[in-house]
Amino acid sequence: MKRFSKEELKANNARYLWHPMAQPKAMRETPPDIIARGEGSWIWDIDGHKLVDGVGGLWSANLGFGRSEIRDAIVAQLDELAFYNVFRGTTHPRAIELSTRMAEFMREDGVVASFFSNGGSDAVEGALKLARQYWKIRGQRDRTKYIALRQGYHGVHFGGMSVNGNTNFRRAYEPLLPGCFHIDTPWLYRNPYTDDPQELGEICARQLEREIVFQGPDTVAAFIAEPVQGAGGVIVPPPNYWPRIREICDKYEVLLIADEVVTGFGRTGHMFGTRMWGVKADMWCLAKGLSSGYIPLGMTAIAGKVAEVFDGGDAALGAVTHGYTYSAHPVAAAAALATLDILESEDVVGNAARQGEHLLRRMREIGAGSHLVGDVRGVGLMACFELVSDKATKASFPRGASEPMAIARAAYEMGAMVRVSGPNIILSPALTISREQIDLLCDILQQAFNKVEGG
Ligand SMILES: Cc1ncc(COP(=O)(O)O)c(C=O)c1O
């Protein structure tokens, strides 16, 4: 197999490779960094420049890079059975083991079954489709609508994109799925209602109730939301929000779908975001941390209440006519089993909670001394600086403003990888990151802010 030289890699990247969320031409003009190696929370670019990874791959390499247990499980599985499908007539040992394991892992949440796929967007698509099917089996064929939150992110398939709450991701692909409606996110920093978290949680929960009643409860299939919004800018809802949402969904029999693609498997300092809020969903969308990002894998976790209805349906209506060639891919399933072993034997989630508190404390210090930082928010190891052009009025930067990128570039040069999304600088390191690495990340960010603000 021919390996490219450094020069060939740099020259060919944007010539032949189209990147998600980027204009191909822009990637040629401002080439992305080429990351060549990873170990724990360290990464090296193609020029050998060493960085602490504040991004965790993309909220995904939760156990860091180079875990030999996951690698060994992958290699052993490649030797044993590189692939077989789970479409009706066949299955394989890893699929059975992983679905059994997930039912045990999420027993306290009420999960009884898993539907596997290839990533987060798939996991969302599965949940949205199964929600409609659930109502068809129950004979309520008009229950087809979805309600979701503004600023929410649910991946890029047509269903997920239609419930996304960021119009930037939708515009180029409209018209989308009809019957998707959006309500306000309980976003303390930016809302027209109140500065009181409890009150905000209640106001926004009531919006869900109003929307359900307005649409007609017998037309609403499901409400979908992230327990903490990730891509939308790490928006942490007030503690009363999710319990109220659950109550309202129960009152009108609307299914509650928790999109835990980011929050699942410890990111918030709790194993699942719904657990943090003391709530059980009806379906969960999981990916990223499920295989620690080593191999693409997604899954829709299904609660007993939903599974019972499928079991009770007739053969035609109850059949899940959805799925992918690579659903429950054995190599991905092996990676996930090794990931779950580590999550159960090491205090990864506790580390995320402890390091997350330290991270937020340090970020708040940086924010307090910066005229660019309007808000610092987060929970566990998901955190964000929201940059503003005027701290007093919270005025946003115009789209495409250079400041967030300038800070990220300065940090990169000094040895820290962070991610810019709109006006936000987002941090989502591996859950195994050490305190020293968090301190390094924050020391570098402090210097990057100083550099950009100083001149
Ligand atoms: C909450 C949420 N849902 C769904 C997705 C889509 O996942 P994927 O990119 O694996 O398709 C993401 C991706 O970041 C996400 O953050």
Explain this structure to me?
- The chain is an alpha/beta fold and 455 residues long.
- The protein has two domains: 33-66 and 347-454, Aspartate Aminotransferase, domain 1 (Alpha-Beta Complex), CATH 3.90.1150; 70-345, Type I PLP-dependent aspartate aminotransferase-like (Major domain) (Aspartate Aminotransferase, domain 2, 3-Layer(aba) Sandwich), CATH 3.40.640.10.
- The chain is globular and about 65 Å long.
- It has helices at residues 6-16, 24-29, 56-59, 68-80, 93-105, 120-137, 158-163, 197-215, 241-252, 273-276, 304-312, 315-318, 330-345, 348-368, 403-414, 435-454; strands at residues 35-39, 42-45, 50-53, 111-117, 145-149, 180-183, 220-225, 255-259, 283-286, 298-303, 373-379, 382-387, 416-417, 419-421, 424-427.
- A seven-stranded mixed beta sheet has the order 4-10-9-8-7-5-6, with helices on both faces.
- It binds pyridoxal-5'-phosphate (PLP).
- Pyridoxal-5'-phosphate (PLP) binds next to helix 6.
Key terms for this structure?
16 helices; 7-stranded mixed β-sheet; Aspartate Aminotransferase, domain 1; 2 domains; alpha/beta; globular; binds pyridoxal-5'-phosphate; 16% strand; 4-stranded mixed β-sheet; Aspartate Aminotransferase, domain 2; 455 residues
